[in-house]
Amino acid sequence: MAEATYFRKGFGLKTAIEGLLSTDYHSRLVEVIRARDHVLAVGPLTFRLAREFGFCYGVDRAVDYAYETRMKFPDRPLHLVGEIIHNPHVNAKLEAMGVNFLHRGPDGEFDFTRLTANDVVIMPAFGVTIQDFARLREIGCVMVDTTCGSVLNVWKRVESYARDGFTALIHGKQWHEETKSTASQVMKYPEGRYLVVLDMAEARAVCEWIEQGGDPAPITTRFAGAASPGFDFARDLERVGLANQTTMLSSESLAIAEEVRRTMVRKYGEEKAAEHVRTFDTICSATQERQDAVELMLAEPPDLMIVVGGYNSSNTTHLAKLSASRGVTTYHIEDSDCLDPEIGTIRHRPVGEKGEVTATGWLGRAKSIGITAGASTPNNKIGETIVRICAIAGLAGALEAEIQ
Fold first, then answer.
1. pLDDT above 50 for 72
2. What is the rounded CA–CA span in Å between residue 14 and residue 19?
């Protein structure tokens, strides 16, 4: 009997890995704060933990499955296409377990040349492109698919657009693994087309072209690398279907969809607009819940907000963007290690910028501190962040006494 080479539903080893997962990612402090209605008072400081934060179901599943895979195949070479999720702590744990990370080369492609049928390859929560999936199939290696269900729903949506002759207009980051995998799905169809827009400014440029046309050279140059091969702006924007990277800012995705719909109404009339545009909100529920939880907290804004999560985590960066947009002093830190209790500094990436900066005296006279974390941030890193803030504030002893 031939060996099974494709797995998507786990290996039935969840009970066996529970202790290891708890050791690696659990936080007693976070559980204490949950039990206290998400509020913890430590001396003069009050920590307010968002109602929804940290690991979502899809991330939980992907991490669980990666641990199960190592246990299922202890003696075989184990590889991961890219990163399991966008969190450096989690990826470091997998690397320590002997998982080899496959990265894109200068040509933008993953190097699979050294893989053999004896190798086991994990596909991340973001999914892989149809081209990479086919390449792995051809090699004959064992494939463990952890693609998130919310991502699969987006794939089905863009496939339906391609099948019906609509260009998939995707609100996302063209360099992000999820958007790459989503865009590739339309290429299953000979006439499949896609165009990726990063934000409202790019969406409006597309809408202006739809209404006014003109010389295609400037807009073709502007969206180089963000469109399907051979994309023709004069031909391929007559009928479009909206989708989005599941971790984008929900309000912006909805606003972009409405902007495109209004454009089609102006060009073709209300009665024919449906023939030219389809819209569907494909933000995942976990992303929406975390954004909603920040909105709820901002109804009574804290003095400052700490957002914990990978700098390349889209859903995390959007939580920071949402907080900062409301005028709240916001620090996006990748990990609790960004806080130095010895000298009191914080390393963080300012919203909208690409590099880290180090701030001193950042805590100031703050009395209330909001805490949230992206869907790929484990609880222990959230708990450690609170511990380090208390140490910087000279409240380490007070924290210990408070949670006894």
1. yes
2. 10
